[in-house]
Amino acid sequence: DAKTTQPPSMDCAEGRAANLPCNHSTISGNEYVYWYRQIHSQGPQYIIHGLKNNETNEMASLIITEDRKSSTLILPHATLRDTAVYYCIVRPSPKGSSNTGKLIFGQGTTLQVKP
Amino acid sequence: ETGVTQTPRHLVMGMTNKKSLKCEQHLGHNAMYWYKQSAKKPLELMFVYSLEERVENNSVPSRFSPECPNSSHLFLHLHTLQPEDSALYLCASSQDALYEQYFGPGTRLTVT
């Protein structure tokens, strides 16, 4: 399984865009990039995922570099409620009978949104 | 509200007790998961069920015993736990193994 590297912590001013980077240089061609976040004392929350194209939903945008070795999660207008640990996860290949849907969580990035 | 509920939310038990954690999903999903989150450690996958069949046991000690009676319910039976088993236990579900997972709020377990 490809591993990911994220900065341990970041600060962002309320109302500004939060850009969270993730390196996944060993990602293979059919592995997806997933982002989850975990607000203190709650279960993780799915945010967004992508394969090679940039993706956007009501929560965030995901920018994946052309070589797919890194990605950036963008929260366009961060609020205090976006303070959380953000996890970048490379999903095991969906092909093959061995895929059980396992998510491998790292330490993530603790994002602190400040007033 | 993610559509995944867990009970109890908090549990304190002695090392000789037997207790069970319950998870229920109201999303019509076919896969369910148990994760453990210890203090200052990443989430660790414990078990995966797909269509009520256990498809992964991530080297979990036998004092943790999962049960999936149907696709909407998942239990984790606990017996003779150790203090180091104190953690947040999270349940998740997904449409199947290929899709994003939705997590419950977790059960905060303390073993005394």
Layout of helices and strands:
The complex is a heterodimer of chains A (115) and B (112).
Chain A: E1 9-13, E2 18-23, E3 32-38, E4 45-50, E5 55-56, E6 61-64, E7 70-75, E8 84-91, E9 109-114
Parallel strand pairs in A: 1-9
Antiparallel strand pairs in A: 2-7, 3-4, 3-8, 5-6, 6-7, 8-9
Chain B: E1 4-7, E2 10-13, E3 18-25, E4 31-37, E5 44-50, E6 53-57, E7 64-70, E8 73-79, E9 87-94, E10 102-103, E11 107-111
Parallel strand pairs in B: 2-11
Antiparallel strand pairs in B: 1-3, 3-8, 4-5, 4-9, 5-6, 7-8, 9-10, 9-11
What's the overall average pLDDT of chain B, rounded? 92
- The Rg value of chain B, from CA coordinates, equals 13 Å
Contiguous low-pLDDT stretches of chain B (5 residues minimum) are none
Shape of chain A: globular
Radius of gyration of chain A: 14 Å
Question: Order of strands across the biggest sheet of chain A?
Answer: 1-9-8-3-4
Query: How do the helices and strands follow one another from N- to C-terminus of chain A?
Result: EEEEEEEEE
What is the arithmetic mean of pLDDT of chain A?
90
Number of helical stretches of at least 4 residues of chain B: 0
Short summary of the structure?
Chain A has 115 residues and is mostly beta strands. Chain A has no helices and nine strands.
Give an account of the 3D structure.
- With 115 residues, chain A is mainly beta.
- Chain A has strands spanning 9-13, 18-23, 32-38, 45-50, 55-56, 61-64, 70-75, 84-91, 109-114.
- In chain A, a hairpin with a 5-residue loop joins β6 (61-64) and β7.
- The model of chain A has no long low-confidence stretch (mean pLDDT 90).
- Chain B is an all-beta fold.
- Chain B is built from no helices and eleven strands.
- In chain B, the strands form two sheets. In chain B, strands 2, 4, 5, 6, 9, 10 and 11 form a seven-stranded mixed β-sheet that branches. In chain B, strands 1-3-8-7 form a four-stranded antiparallel β-sheet, with no helix packed on it.
- Chain B is globular.
- The termini of chain B are far apart.
- In chain B, 36% of the residues are buried.
- The chains are: A mainly beta (115), B mainly beta (112).
- Chains A and B meet through β4 of A and β5, β9 and β10 of B.
